[in-house]
Amino acid sequence: MTYFTKRYHPPGTAPGALTTAEAIPAGPLTLRLIDYGATEYAEKENLTFEECLPYLAHPTMTWIHVQGSAPPDLLRQVGAAFGLHPLALEDVLNSGQRPKTESYDGQLFVVMSLPVRRNGSIATEQVSMFMGGNFLVSFHEGGEDPFEPVRKRLRNHAGHIREAGPDHLLYALMDVIIDRGFPILEEVGEWIEDLEEDLLGKPSKNTLHAIHNIKRELLLLRRMLWPQREVLNSLLRGDHALIHDITKTYLRDCYDHTIQVMDLLETYRDIMTSMLDVYLSSVSMRLNDVMRVLTVIATLFIPPTFIVGVYGMNFDHATSPWNMPELEWKYGYLFVWMIIIGMMGGMLVYFKRKKWF
Amino acid sequence: MTYFTKRYHPPGTAPGALTTAEAIPAGPLTLRLIDYGATEYAEKENLTFEECLPYLAHPTMTWIHVQGSAPPDLLRQVGAAFGLHPLALEDVLNSGQRPKTESYDGQLFVVMSLPVRRNGSIATEQVSMFMGGNFLVSFHEGGEDPFEPVRKRLRNHAGHIREAGPDHLLYALMDVIIDRGFPILEEVGEWIEDLEEDLLGKPSKNTLHAIHNIKRELLLLRRMLWPQREVLNSLLRGDHALIHDITKTYLRDCYDHTIQVMDLLETYRDIMTSMLDVYLSSVSMRLNDVMRVLTVIATLFIPPTFIVGVYGMNFDHATSPWNMPELEWKYGYLFVWMIIIGMMGGMLVYFKRKKWF
Amino acid sequence: MTYFTKRYHPPGTAPGALTTAEAIPAGPLTLRLIDYGATEYAEKENLTFEECLPYLAHPTMTWIHVQGSAPPDLLRQVGAAFGLHPLALEDVLNSGQRPKTESYDGQLFVVMSLPVRRNGSIATEQVSMFMGGNFLVSFHEGGEDPFEPVRKRLRNHAGHIREAGPDHLLYALMDVIIDRGFPILEEVGEWIEDLEEDLLGKPSKNTLHAIHNIKRELLLLRRMLWPQREVLNSLLRGDHALIHDITKTYLRDCYDHTIQVMDLLETYRDIMTSMLDVYLSSVSMRLNDVMRVLTVIATLFIPPTFIVGVYGMNFDHATSPWNMPELEWKYGYLFVWMIIIGMMGGMLVYFKRKKWF
Amino acid sequence: MTYFTKRYHPPGTAPGALTTAEAIPAGPLTLRLIDYGATEYAEKENLTFEECLPYLAHPTMTWIHVQGSAPPDLLRQVGAAFGLHPLALEDVLNSGQRPKTESYDGQLFVVMSLPVRRNGSIATEQVSMFMGGNFLVSFHEGGEDPFEPVRKRLRNHAGHIREAGPDHLLYALMDVIIDRGFPILEEVGEWIEDLEEDLLGKPSKNTLHAIHNIKRELLLLRRMLWPQREVLNSLLRGDHALIHDITKTYLRDCYDHTIQVMDLLETYRDIMTSMLDVYLSSVSMRLNDVMRVLTVIATLFIPPTFIVGVYGMNFDHATSPWNMPELEWKYGYLFVWMIIIGMMGGMLVYFKRKKWF
Amino acid sequence: MTYFTKRYHPPGTAPGALTTAEAIPAGPLTLRLIDYGATEYAEKENLTFEECLPYLAHPTMTWIHVQGSAPPDLLRQVGAAFGLHPLALEDVLNSGQRPKTESYDGQLFVVMSLPVRRNGSIATEQVSMFMGGNFLVSFHEGGEDPFEPVRKRLRNHAGHIREAGPDHLLYALMDVIIDRGFPILEEVGEWIEDLEEDLLGKPSKNTLHAIHNIKRELLLLRRMLWPQREVLNSLLRGDHALIHDITKTYLRDCYDHTIQVMDLLETYRDIMTSMLDVYLSSVSMRLNDVMRVLTVIATLFIPPTFIVGVYGMNFDHATSPWNMPELEWKYGYLFVWMIIIGMMGGMLVYFKRKKWF
Question: Which of B198, B211, B219 to mutate to probe the A interface, most A CBs <10 Å?
């Protein structure tokens, strides 16, 4: 588990310098270009940025998607071609950003967090999007491209996505990112149900760590998803010339989904807190059971053991008539047993009354 | 217990596509139509949507209530007939929505949560309502129709519900939904009173799980009812042409009831938290009692057992005069008993002073 | 303890129908009428509402106070005579309302919560007040009439209460209701001081339940008093024609008192939470003490008991020279005692170092 | 410890009646008058209010400070001389008020809380101030006069306090009151540091009660200091004709100090909460240690004690060859010791593996 | 650990008096002056303030940085030369201020908190900055100068920092201060990861104190960093003539970083709270394990010890036929063993069923 997942430049670096405190892993990098309009459609994959440039001159809508960790050089090229702000490019490079939206003249920059399942736990991956009058550039630093369904809708001319402007494409991408939260939270809901059964049965140390893990995952997820509310609010309420009113109806739907995801996160978190309390109480309860058994056994047998010890002492009746006269009685032995059984019986009655078993 | 109760479409689906990630259970489906005005009144049950269409042409008020899970086809039909927004239809299909209100031109879409008792626990069922100038379409995905009392009032011409417009009908339905919270919270209040008696008596593991269960139910209920406050606020403050000022007085009453329900929920939740603490303390207290008994018994008898063990050793006075001379004393045995009784008495005084019993 | 104290009509009842889900207890009912002006003064008690009607025609100020549970019929009569809104009458009937203020044209409706001591615990009773241009009708569902001091001031012509309008009378009644919180909180303060002494001394199970009870009472009281802040705010900030500026100065004083009551409630609640933690820690600490005593005794005596047991075995030195040669030594017995005393001494040093006593 | 420190009049008393529910203690009472301007300066002590009256006629600034509990008669005199509002006078009498500011025409009334150290704990004392065009009357119900440094500055003509108006004097007094919080919080900080050392060493019951006490003091202090923020805000933002812009710069400094005091209070409170958790955990940890020792000793010696008990039974080998043949073996005794040592060794290995020591 | 780190003047001191309650440590003090424009550049170190004065007359931008605790005399000189407000100078002297911004005419005063690592824990150091039309004076009370990277950028003419005005320099300094939070939080993140491993392994008392320490550090850090949000907000939203719009784009980036730092702090704090709960549960769980072993051993061996004690009693079969006839049986000894083994076996089955091992 790593808690600090943000990349940052060394303090004091000039703004927009596109340097990081740690080296960026050189992973696979894919560029996908789709150039479309109501009637035209062109799709290219695995091309270099230079090969994209001719498409930008067309009046048709151009969507470039960069899948993988973009190196500073590529960012500089893209920045130069579209006239992007260096601070925004820095935010693409230094991934682990808080979701936010920034508007520069004629452009909109949006950072979102895509929740993903990775090695059995939940992580978030940064998606950065630049939108202009007739282009959208998206960067996703992660292994798997989440936007295939959108490409399919573009390809199949499904709905009016091909007729609508770049704002509708932006909406479509954001919708994918936000809706990805549902299957993940559904899975978390199942984890919690399993945990609850464990709690009702025999809670172990693993239950405890599972509760802590889920709580932590929810905390980290919440940190990365919470600001998306503000992003959508800002797009809905702000006066971005690029966002048309018709798209706002759709964005409001996105906003609702964000709220639902946050609602669920918060409810889950409250339930985990309650479960931790139940766990703690269960452990105390079990300790109680264990101690009750010990106490019953010990109090039943320790006093009789003392009694029989007395008659094991080597005081000889022959030496002094005061020495354990019971040894000489005919029913002395039975008398001792009576005492012992009487003590034990009394104890049992006492425990019964205390409702110890 | 299922925590994730929302239905959702697969991420990336086109908006308004009316598809879900899981199949919708094909349950019984009932359409009820009431066409009414100050003087006219017609009521039909179990008819198909096609049969409803003629009534829509009348200038009278038409209320269609769909009871059960509406299949996508029916939704598409209804949407086409009334010109409803596809995103709103999607929200009807993907039940488990957060209560909300959305206004499209000339129409109002309201989603509410109806709290119901199901298999001994509390659940919420989605009620979706579309309101236009002279119609109201309501969908309730659940077994039992909660709106019979409203139909009765319409039938009996009780109050001025027949003279008033669709906004008053909307109010009447919302009032039923919100007021359903009171009997349910009354029942929860009784559960809590029972639990409290358990706590004062002998709290068991079941008490613990009952506390956790009630807390969880309250959390889930709160999540689904909280947004109704906003819904009413938006209807009261918003400038919906369809909501008349006279209806707002009534909606304000609904708003008050929502607040009262939330107040109670919060208070119950705080009480449950306090009860969990009391439970934990009770368990610790009981452990204390158990341990005190063990300690008293053990400390009373363990040292004397050692003493009698000493005189059980096979050191023979004959071998050495140093070997346990007490064995030869006349009152040696009594002397040993004196020591034992003295030790026990000292212990008892010590425990008394420590207020252990 | 009953948690759900609100009366409500069955869900789906027509608004203003003045019916309740449960029967209203028929308790004693008193009407008190005071008709006053700067110079006139008339006071009547135990009269029927019909007998009040003539006074309403006078231009002088008329105050009718209904003490006890008003039956629906009386409410209907009062409503008809003053032209009160049916929803407001419903709120008078369905007691247990949240404090609120509602303004209908030319009238003001105020619901307040009067904190009272009942059977050793704290409860709240609803006071509902209707104010018009020259009348004020107040309903108090409870046993004891709290407004006697106000009547005395009216009778004695104390201050300018007789010259001032109905808003000043409303202020005087609200002031009584709010100030009733101080003696009750003073008493709660004393309970807490007593509890704190218990905590410092020997906390018992009763301490625990007392803490829980006070916490719960504070929670329930807070729920009923908190909204009074809003009521006063609304009277102060709202543009009610009936509330004059000079009265607002006095209402601001009321507002301050409400805040002080809430402040105290919150502080008490925080202190109770802290006390519960202290209680839990005390119990653990005591368990620690108990266990330390047990451990010291057991570890001091269990090993020596083993030693003396060894010499109690029936191995005979005569059978084999390996069998316990110490039995034949001259100082064998003393040697065994040395070992035992050495072990115990070592243990004591160890415990001393661990600071166990 | 008394939790309820507010004085109040009996509910239903006429507003401004200057009566209290309990008698006001007749303590020492001192009036100090300073009459000053840029060039004039007169200071009088221990004079009656009648002797102050001539100074009020001068156009110079007059500051009257009343130290001690002012009796209702004095308040009435002062009220009459300056035309003060009876509700404000009531607030001076009923000390324990929440800090607040109230503006009547041409006058400003400010209530502040002065934190003081009293009998080893922290208390707050009410300071009430009336300010008009050329006068300021201050009341401090407490033993020690905190305003000596201000008088010194006036006497020595330090800064421009003599040239400035009454608002600067008000600022100077408020500054003293607020800054008194710093030395007190510094002391609390030292208490916390001491407590933390205790926690790291050997936490005792006293540590627990010290934590609870500090928490409670912080809670009570917070309740009385928190509203000072609002007081300063209202003076800064409000449009009081008496507060000049130049004074606002100084009041903003006061505001900063108030925030710093509150910040510290909140941080301390969070730290105390964390320390209570640490305390609870420490106690559990110590119990663990104690129990581990007990368990190790008991499990090491109880089974061997059983073994040696076996060979102490009076079964005679002579009676039956099945009776303990080891007693007749040559190395039987050593064999028994081997078994015992083996058992103990096995246990030790087991405990070692469980990391119990 | 010292909790109270603010320096303050004695209550009642005249405003701007530049005196402190405690002596200021006379540490090393360095003045660094940079005088720059697009084309000019002069850098001086270790000069006195008198030597700085000639540079101030130039129209070029002058940056004076004072490293170390500035004595009151120096502050008075600087204040006189630039016309700074005495209250602001007081805030420089009384370090430990809350971050804030204050605007006097033609000047801007900003206080920031620089997080640093000191003796293994985290502290904050105050940085105070005065900005005017063509100068910036910065004070940093601490050992190490954090602004070397900015000087380097100025020297190397990196970016447009030399062309931009004093507001860009202010931004550059604030950026350094805020970004210093990232490496520190990264380190805290590693501490937490280490702690979590400890928790999963064998949590000890040190784990507990480490958790408490990190929580406390986060609390103190939060207190000093939280207000930086407001500082940036005020610079961004306020109408400071000295802050140009182009700089605001950069300051918005700073604001984002502040939010990210606070987000991380809050998340860490929530995780620490959860870890404390897990710790407490782990300790209880371990206690459970220990007690289970003790209980199993004790209950297995205590009853048999009693049995063998019985047969060690000196009742002689010869005295009475009732005395332990088993001693005379041929298989008596085996019979006793059977009983013992039977008891132990029964116990083991019982424990197995209770799932104790």
Answer: B219
